[in-house]
């Protein structure tokens, strides 16, 4: 009789203990906090950390697709008709990225590196041979030169004469290879004969193969996980000098290759892109799933490229009041040696409809032309990303060049790119394993509560039986095996309770 009541008491006390501790842990989220602190500590750009090697040499394959706009009515356009373009592409390249000359600074608080990229053509993923396919498009070097000499009667006349004698028109026909990787332009060659600073060769991706875009210094995230991968300086500068306000010139966020763990749906993700010569931001759009990994989709909202009327914060991107363009465009001439180059999303996605209407052949579609980043919110890992951007040239009437006389200001599309990446299977498996551990450990208190609940059931059954026995005064020895079992159970419970403490070390 005393042995049994002792067992019943033990079960009751253990059950109460488990329930109290379990519910306490659930409410205080001790294990979740523990796990999150562990993630913050492990996701840092430090030698030997979980993420360092894949940051230096990202394993997922990156593909770069180029699409060109082939102009089909050059002569009519020059006589005042609406331009018609035909999209030609993709010309696809496998992009290889790695970080060069990585060195730790300031006791592992910062790291410096060069981002090297190289491109290898993939014929089977392309529409044609870039060495053969020819595209008619804006003669960008000529427009750059005309803009440069604008305002000087003498220099304009000179360039005008040269352009006539070299048969260098407002439009040109070149192969895809030439447009991307460079060709010697006769007008530039003529100018470089007298001005050594001018490069003879022009190409949209000229000198971009196997090269880097300058030294970056990043925060490693050791001090604060929110700083993980954040750019501190680029080419030794913590501010840009292209734009006219401090806000526009600031270098914000990461370079797009690393994002801090424990992402929030409400936060703005900042990315500094040297291609655009500015920082942009992205906002949460929706929940997605890639290879079984949950992710938040972040995408740049319209306000990023909105006109200064729509978003006054963008005023700093107008280099002069006359050069302010409408929503959806960014004039990047300050960082293109003054060439009238305008960046936008492909097909003027998110731009003022007047730019779409001005060009025959544009059809913006969110699904095909938006830029987005799918990030796993727990780890900050990129599970899928698409960067899409279009290169345009601003055509306008330029005094001293009679051929441009009939021309209205037109933002003329030349090419757009689609750079995409999806997490590789091996990395996906690693992330899934990590997420599983995080979930299991975070929810461990629920296991304790569950055990407590089971014991509560056992406790009630024992109590009911004990009461019945008291009334029927039966022999108690037949029940001893049962009470023995119950005695072991609470021990089992605490034993199981101890094991997962070793788990987080995995
Ligand atoms: C571009 O258009 C021209 C004529 O307008 C055509 O001859 C040429 O084949 C086109 N290029 C491509 C790659 O389709
Ligand atoms: C140029 O703009 C004027 C006034 O906005 C318009 O009347 C004319 O049709 C335009 N010309 C072309 C070629 O678009
Ligand atoms: C990396 O360091 C080596 C040796 O110090 C140097 O020759 C090379 O130019 C550096 N690479 C870059 C991209 O700066
Ligand atoms: C880029 O360089 C690599 C080797 O460094 C070469 O294999 C590849 O063909 C080059 N790509 C282009 C587009 O020239
Ligand atoms: C960009 O690339 C992705 C992945 O390769 C592809 O799914 C998508 O259709 C491409 N977008 C366009 C506009 O071609």
Biggest beta-sheet profile: 13 strands, antiparallel
Number of domains: 2
Termini separation (Å)?
A: 47 Å
Overall shape: it is: elongated
Low-confidence stretches: 478-506
Helix content: 25-40%
Secondary-structure map with pairings?
Elements (H helix, E strand, L loop, with lengths): L1 H27 L1 H13 L9 H5 L5 E10 L2 H5 L6 E21 L4 E12 L12 E5 L1 H10 L3 H13 L5 E5 H6 L1 E2 L1 H7 L8 E2 L8 E9 L11 E4 L11 H4 L19 E5 L4 E13 L2 E7 L30 E2 L9 E4 L8 H5 L8 H4 L2 E4 L6 E14 L14 E13 L2 H18 L1 H29 L7 H19 L8
Antiparallel strand pairs: 1-2, 1-17, 2-3, 3-8, 4-5, 6-7, 8-9, 10-11, 11-12, 12-15, 13-14, 14-16, 15-16, 16-17
Helix pairs in contact: 1-13, 1-14, 2-12, 5-6, 13-14
The protein binds 2-acetamido-2-deoxy-beta-D-glucopyranose (NAG) (5 copies).
One 2-acetamido-2-deoxy-beta-D-glucopyranose binds next to loops.
Question: Can I get a quick summary?
Answer:
The protein has helices at 2-28, 30-42, 52-56, 74-78, 140-149, 153-165, 176-181, 186-192, 246-249, 353-357, 366-369, 425-442, 444-472, 480-498, and strands spanning 62-71, 85-105, 110-121, 134-138, 171-175, 183-184, 201-202, 211-219, 231-234, 269-273, 278-290, 293-299, 330-331, 341-344, 372-375, 382-395, 410-422. The protein is α+β, with helices and mostly antiparallel strands and 506 residues long.
């Amino acid at each position: 009789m005393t042995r049994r009541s002792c067992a019943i008491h033990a079960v009751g006390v253990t059950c109460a203990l488990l329930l109290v501790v379990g519910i306490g842990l659930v409410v205080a989220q001790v294990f979740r906090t523990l796990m999150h602190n562990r993630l913050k500590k492990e996701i840092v750009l430090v030698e030997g950390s979980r993420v360092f090697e894949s940051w230096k040499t990202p394993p997922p394959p990156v593909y770069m697709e180029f699409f060109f706009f082939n102009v089909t009515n050059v002569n009519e356009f020059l006589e005042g008709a609406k331009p018609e373009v035909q999209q030609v592409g993709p010309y696809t390249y496998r992009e290889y990225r790695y970080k060069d000359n990585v060195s730790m600074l300031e006791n592992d608080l910062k790291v410096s590196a060069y981002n090297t990229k190289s491109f290898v053509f993939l014929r089977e993923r392309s529409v044609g041979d870039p060495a053969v396919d020819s595209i008619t498009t804006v003669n960008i070097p000529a427009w750059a030169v005309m803009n440069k000499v604008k305002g000087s009667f003498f220099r304009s006349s000179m360039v005008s004469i040269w352009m006539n004698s070299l048969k260098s028109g407002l439009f040109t026909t070149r192969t895809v290879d030439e447009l991307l990787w460079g060709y010697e332009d006769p007008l530039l060659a003529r100018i470089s004969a007298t001005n050594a600073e001018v490069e003879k060769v022009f190409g949209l991706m000229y000198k971009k193969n196997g090269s880097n875009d300058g030294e970056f210094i990043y925060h490693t995230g050791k001090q604060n996980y929110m700083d993980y991968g954040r750019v501190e300086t680029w080419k030794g500068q913590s501010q840009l000098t292209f734009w006219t306000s401090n806000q526009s010139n600031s270098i914000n966020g990461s370079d797009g290759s690393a994002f801090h763990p424990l992402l929030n749906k409400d936060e703005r993700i900042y990315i500094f892109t040297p291609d655009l010569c500015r920082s942009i931001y992205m906002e949460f759009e929706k929940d997605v799933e890639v290879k079984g990994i949950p992710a938040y989709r972040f995408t740049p909202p319209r306000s990023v490229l909105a006109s200064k009327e729509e978003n006054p914060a963008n005023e700093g991107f107008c280099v002069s009041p006359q050069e302010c363009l409408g929503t959806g465009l960014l004039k990047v001439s300050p960082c293109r040696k003054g060439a009238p180059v305008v960046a936008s999303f492909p097909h003027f996605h998110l731009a003022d409809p007047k730019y779409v209407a001005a060009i025959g052949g544009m059809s913006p579609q969110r699904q095909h032309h938006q830029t987005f980043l799918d990030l796993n919110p727990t780890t900050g890992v990129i599970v899928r990303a698409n960067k899409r951007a279009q290169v345009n040239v601003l055509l306008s009437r330029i005094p001293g060049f009679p051929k441009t006389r009939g021309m209205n200001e037109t933002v003329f599309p030349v090419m757009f790119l689609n750079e995409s990446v999806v997490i590789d299977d091996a990395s996906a498996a690693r992330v899934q394993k990590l997420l599983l551990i995080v979930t299991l450990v975070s929810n461990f208190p629920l296991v304790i509560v569950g055990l407590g609940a089971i014991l509560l059931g056992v406790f009630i059954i024992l109590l009911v039986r004990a009461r019945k026995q008291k009334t029927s005064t039966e022999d108690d020895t037949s029940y001893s095996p049962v009470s023995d079992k119950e005695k072991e159970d609470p021990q089992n419970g605490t034993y199981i309770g101890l094991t997962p403490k070793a788990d987080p070390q995995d």
